[in-house]
Amino acid sequence: MSLVLDPAAQDLLFREARTANTFTDEPVTDEQVQAIYDLVKYGPTAFNQSPLRITLVRSAGARERLVKHMAEGNQPKTATAPLVAILSADNEFHEELPDLFPHFPQAKDAFFADRPVRENSALLNAALQAAYFIVGVRAAGLAAGPMTGVDFEGVRKEFLDDDHTPLMVVNIGKPGPDAWFPRSPRLAFEQVVTTV
Fold it and tell me: Which residues does residue 19 pair with via DSSP β-bridges, in sequence order?
């Protein structure tokens, strides 16, 4: 094996990690969420734009408002997970670029003055950050249940604004009984990697 990462960590983050479908009622603390963010904030994005925004759904009222926007099969999972995160892309991320990209503060206007350009860039880079977030949840010893079976426009109207594009909803917690569906197949190396 040519990987430097310890095999147990490889298993935790990738090989044994799965999308959880049930959770225990053990709470996910603000300290755990802070630790996850403090790790995953170092994942790269173009121009260090960091457009991911995370809305934590904790209260019973907010949970009820979210569940109604989930696909039918996702509703019970979201209703019972200890913590739910709405991950979205901030289409006005460029306002932070003078601080996040200080060696070229003009990037804000030189590259991202047009809203459609920002939206495309925010979508791609927030999706990268969403993947980092899922791995960070796993690194915290928790399970993540990312879902896109969501009425995104309903979620945007209910929880966000016109400057934020929802990407996914992630249930977070310790896995409960029968949390895992059977592992789905993966493509072989030869099907994915081409050398030119």
Answer: 144
